[in-house]
Amino acid sequence: MMSIVTRFAPSPTGELHLGSAYSARIAWQQAREVGGTFLVRIEDTDIRRCRREYETAILEDLRWLGLDWDGEVRRQSDHFADYGKVLDQLDARGLIYPCFCTRADIAREIAAAASAPHGPDGPLYPGTCRSLSIEERRHRIAAGHELCMRLDAVRAAEQAGPYSFVDETRGRIEGQPLLMGDFVIARKDTPTSYHLAVTVDDHLQGVTLVTRGEDLLPSTHVHGLLQKLLGYAAPQYAHHRLLTDSDGRRFAKRDKDLTIRALRDAGKTPDDVFALIAAFPAKA
Ligand code: GLU
Fold first, then answer.
1. Ligand 1 geometric centre to CA of 58 (Å)
2. Which of 22, 108, 120, 37 is nearest to 72 (CA)?
3. For 30-39, what is each residue's pLDDT tens digit?
């Protein structure tokens, strides 16, 4: 039987809180129960929001909780060249295009449109820059306009063909390649985006089971699309429920008193923390 490889992939934009410790523990347990591999990956592609201090603190907290990982921690900002190569492949296949729109441009375009298709995160990008001519693109680049790169989702869906993925509790799910429209595949400031880096890394690291919150289920549809386009094997998924507080709110980095650090400073032990996690409901 193939050995299982799971991972915990935090973004270092704040300290580890109860919700993320819960997620890490599930992935860790899934690997440890069957003698598999548990990886930790630092997802710091949003270089303006991520901080090295948070990375150090998250790793320290995981160690303190006893959630030991295998091998080196992969830090995405050390691997921009890997994502750049894949971006070039997609570009050579005519699947990505530069987008010069600001947030305000996009909002204006959507407001003026007769209908605005919505995705899981709100209105989809209206495709303004998809039809720019090569000359216009060159002109804007030469003029120093800021740009990000977007996937041409319709073309990508055509090239990829149908695909599906398996979630442990939900079963096989048909991929919806257009769910996020022409999503950003490379940000303005880095040659990648969350969606591209996750897909490339899960592939390069041989991850076989992706354990993460069900808030990321829509993202799995576009990761599946990229996997199919790039010829990567699709891992299995376990989208778990989100841990919520007694008011039904999910934990977030702003809940300063429920960070692992704060609990630890208040004299709690790792067992106390896991008992606290078990006492909170995980809601759909
Ligand atoms: N880095 C993402 C986050 O912290 C998780 C991504 C994933 O598990 O695929 O929300």
1. 14
2. 37
3. 999 999 999 9
